[in-house]
Amino acid sequence: MSKENKHRNIKKSSYKMLSIPSDGTDVDFDKMQLEEEKRTIANTMRQIRSEAGKHRKNVAVRERKEKFSSKLQKIKSKMSAQSKMIFDSNDKVLFTSNGIKKRDIAGDQMTPSVKKLTHLIQSENPIFKEGKLWTPHRSMCVEKKLQKTTAFQIQTNYEPSGDQPSAISNLIEGVCSEKKTQLLLGVTGSGKTFTMAKVIEKIQRPTIVMAPNKILAAQLYSEFKNFFPNNSVEYFVSYYDYYQPEAYVPRTDTYIAKESSINEQIDRMRHSATRSLLERNDCIVVSSVSCIYGIGSVETYSQMTLQVNIGDEIEQKALLSSLVKQQYKREEMGIIRGSFRVCGDSIEVFPSHLENTAWRINMFGNDVETITEFDPITGKNIRNLQSIKIYANSHYVTPKPTLDDAIKCIKKELKYRIIELEKEGMLIEAQRLTQRINYDLEISL
Question: Which Pfam families is this protein grouped with (predicted)?
Fold first, then answer.
């Protein structure tokens, strides 16, 4: 076989290996080599572009992380700066809350409770100093009202007997000498409640009686009510008949919303108790341990009251707006506790602390003409009143400026928390938190 034939056979076998049709010429072989080189170059360029894309992506991720960390640091520093309490050289207190500019409330602008507490902190004063026990401020309007109350007086045919007289005298002596704790021991049916009633009658001080559970609290409330029929004996316990706290099951990604059922009668008695504490000094509150939980600011609750007197000049629209701010609901048909109704020039209000009576405010233009107490079921007038004081329908009522400031703080804290969750890759938690917080904010507006 000649060299030329061998060369052709080699070229044909290479054509078959590359699976490229050929007619056996040198030109075709050169074309195949050129196309193979083009494919190799294209693959190489594709790999280079892929590596460059990965590099750009890593750079973008790194820049995003740095941006998030710097933004997070700014928010942290801003929130820490806004939550400080600053004292200046003149001993004036500058309180700043999140989202609120610093306001100098020293001097006349400072509330009485803050004044007393500020003095307590600046003087490094413990709770007990100079022979006096530190007590919070009571407003002047409350003090004026307290002067009109009656003294504690037991209405019973029983007289102290056995060891009761000595126990009563020892307890009174301990209270007068400002003993912090005293213990009265006695078997069941020995008259411990009667002994305490005699002590209250003697010292003439408003008293809170705490019981370990609702059943015992109800029993003590009934007994003190019988001993002091002419004084204010109130009942303050938890008003929940049923309470299901919110929960989350990660295994099934299930969210269980909070659910509760409020006992209307107990809620009314709670409002009656807080009203008596603000208006009367002859007050005994029988409570379970739930009374230790906070129910809001006393000053805020007192400021959200509405005083209406005969002869006052007030627009009906302004009066209705005040009732709505106190969380009273408007009804068109029959009124229930915690609601109001408008009938022409008359406004009927069912206060939160009353059970079987409501108030009717008759207006002539913008003037309050008459105020009547009536039966909300029959509509029959019971008596005429000269003035009324309407308390809020909720212990957690909040003034509009305070609510607006709180919403601003919540929104800022939400942004800070969402950045943290996204940085940790918890996108589902961030979405759920955003949805829940925004829903609560819309409900509160």
Answer: ResIII, UvrB_inter
